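Revision sheet: structure tokens.
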Amino acid sequence: MNVMVKIYLVRHCQTLGNVNRMFQGCTDTEPSEEGLKQLELLALRFRNVHLDKIYSSNLGRAVKTAQAINKYHNIEHIELEGIREINVGKIDGMDWKKIPEKYPEFAKLWNDQPQDFISDGGETMREVFNRVSRTFDEIVSENEGKTVAIVSHGCALRNLMCYCLNKPIEELNSVDFGSNTAVSLVVVEDGVRRVVIQNDVSHIPGVHSKPHSARFTIK
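Predicted:
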């Protein structure tokens, strides 16, 4: 008998950190004015979508996004550290533009060899890939025959999408970052992962499913 799990992957709403071009990582900021509008539209998108459970990172921007998805459902919402954003150590919270000037080696790895990225005091990208994929598998095993949502972050979801596309981390640069509140759908059937929808933002008027640039400008 085929056992299928449907999992919606959702990036958090736009925050003040996004607007101000901050490398948020584990630094948390509040939703921006645009982010609040995104949450309203995201809630409406999921209003008539069957969900059995919602999982989110325990960072505030992901929690608030999960609460918006849950607005018309009132179902169980579980916060997990396993789907938090990457911990980038001493560059966490820095101005995005200043990082290539102060830490050019980190910026070059992030752009060109993200699978090998690490910053002082932070996680390696491989640790993030392993962490989110392991958490994803645990969620799948706990929800046979169900439909759930996972709310996470740009870098964490990029790693998770790489895993769901059945690519090794060495191909991470072939996977796009999603825009704020972008929605993907992954179906897992008898252990086989299949991406049905990827980084869709059709719920936001005037925004299209184009790649979201998260590269450093290195002079």
